[in-house]
Amino acid sequence: MTAEPAVLEANLAFYRAFQTKDIEAMSEIWSKGINTLCIHPGRKILKGWEEIRPSWQQIFKVTTTLEIELQITASESIGNLAYIVLIEKVTQTSNGRKNQSLSNATNLFENMGGKWYLIHHHGSPILR
Q1: Strand boundaries in 50-114, DSSP class E
Q2: Which pTM does this prediction carry?
């Protein structure tokens, strides 16, 4: 079973904000709940938007360009919760150097007040 279209759109909004390095758009998609979690590949657990936001600001600050390709491997909506499991192929340019990484990612969304918010993002590097 796949997630409903509104969840898939919320997921795309997250990656658009990521790719365009738009912290305000990123802020709109994330839940501001204190139990919201983000785990960047190879990094520690960040809890709550107050910890998560600066991590994205730092990524955006040190990155000149970002290109992201996604391959959804699973998704489902169950009541007010939905998940999307995918492979992220991120090509990033920083300090004139191009780097490409592959990650397995899980994004968990919660529907609050009729809108889907990201409550958990976990990226795990795929070693080649």
Answers
A1: 65-78, 81-94, 97-112
A2: 0.94
- The rounded mean pLDDT for the chain is 96
Please give the Cα distance from 101 to 75 (Å, whole number).
Answer: 22
What are the tens digits of pLDDT across the range 27-84? Answer: 999 999 999 999 999 899 999 999 999 999 999 999 999 999 999 999 999 999 999 9
Residues 6+ apart with CB under 8 A from 50: none
| Longest Cα separation, the chain | 45
Q: Write down the residue that tokens 């990484």 correspond to.
A: 101
* Residue-level pLDDT at 95: 86
Element holding 117 (H helix, E strand): strand 115-125
CA 83 – CA 2 distance, rounded (Å)? 9
- How far apart are alpha carbons 73 and 86 in whole angstroms? 5
The span from the CA of 10 to the CA of 128, in Å, is 30
